[in-house]
Amino acid sequence: MKFGKQKIKWIVPxxxxxxxxxxxxxxxxxxxxxxxxxxxxxxQEINAEYTALFEELKDVHKSSRPDGPKTYRAEAATKxxxxxxINICAELFRLDGLEVELCGRWLWIGGNTRQHKEAxxxxxxxxxxxxxxxxxxxxxxxxxxxxxxxxxxxxxxxDRFGSERLGADEDRRSSAAALAG
Length: 181
Prior knowledge:
two-stranded antiparallel sheet
């Protein structure tokens, strides 16, 4: 399959919004990243596909409204680059004992985070005392939360934006093996 000039081999079916693209990429990266025993060439191909698709989908988001369209286009273009998500995933894969959850465009990081506190800070993650988790997101994605809204629980966030979880390292490995099988 071709998408513009980029041949699409790994990210299939091609998603119609950036949240689904990130979810598919994270699963493929977890399975194929060289730091986790995957093939370097295959990971480079996956990264190239992600980059091409991201450029097309970066402002197309999954709608959480059951009565509306399935996707919508953001009013303002994002400044996020495909490398931002590629890099944070690669760095998180190197840290043992983490539970990573993708909710919309945000990553929530739990599990054994105490030993990785400084590394998470260096990656731009922020600690949420109420949720007892670290979060990572592109700065512009946080703008909506400061408009008079109370802090949301993780359950409310999951209900609104969806959730994809992979647990601590053993769970990640078994999830990745299940995806391959």
